[in-house]
Write a structure and sequence with these properties.
The complex is a heterodimer. Chain A is mostly beta strands. Chain A contains no helices and 13 strands. Classes of the chains: A mainly beta, B mainly beta.
Chain lengths: 171, 178
Amino acid sequence: MAGSLIKVSSNTITGSPGSVTLTGIDDNSIYLLTVNNLLQSVGTQVVYRFTESGTDYTGANYGKSGRRITSAGSATDAGDAATITWMFLDSTLGSTVGYNAQYYICNANNSSMETSIIGRHIDGGGSYRKMTGNGVLKRNSAVDGISVLAFSGTPGGGTFTSGEINLYKIK
Amino acid sequence: MSNLRFVNEVTLSVAANTVDLPNLFTGDFETYLVVGENFSSSATGSDYVDARLLDASGSAITTSNYRYGVHYVPSSTGASAEGGNPGNIIGGIGFQNAPLAEGVSFEMYVYSPYDASVYTQGQWVGSNYKSTGTPQAYCWQGFFKYTVNERITGLQLKSRNGANNMDSGTIRCYGVAD
């Protein structure tokens, strides 16, 4: 069907997982990741990794850049060189006020290109700020999904308590 | 079937410095995409376009329970930011510079508006052209949290200083199906 947003994979969080992985990227379409009202009980941040053959890629080849906007009326740059093992450490989680995000994933299925993610989120908890930016996996590989990880010392070291995460294909 | 579902459309026809857009949000979706196109005035004048939320009875919420931040970037040098910490508006959807045909356009994602057990949140990207002073285009990026657990059913667009009456423009609302 032309001109459609097609759901590929979804996860409504139950229990207390440290991460959620959504796969199903299988062509050169642009994919949209949405995160709705994500909450945590352990950890204060959410980070992202791409998957290759269903497994998180954990090498130090991720980078990100962006603009952080706050309700105090400030806008500042936030970036990392492409030498970290996850993306989007600026994403703050809370236990009662949810985190919300939309991110577009580009060039994922193309094994001869780097994979990038572009979009924005609103922090959870009592943090009144948003981040607009992008991340990149500086590695030519076929990416088939993305993991959303609760960060507490390490990616996946925290726990989520609720929220809904969806992966859509844009056709 | 696409997971992006059309919900409602409102076209302005009567000049007013506040425009209510009711019945955009229902219990059918958690996430909504609101797309506004060319909110403009046939009169002269210029003003910021702000927003407020409509409560369950369709009335604009005017209390100081909004937290928002917006960053706006002109096509010339010099970006600016403003915030409400808290404020009684969602500020800076765009800037209306009448009587240009190119009014304020934007897209805004709104999260869980109909769920009275959580805050309603949203983020937007807007654009406009400003012909007064140094003519230039503007890009707006912002977010809000309405910090009361309350059911929200719509939006109000508002000329910040009451300087402009919006009399044209269309808004479309879509639900993002899980």
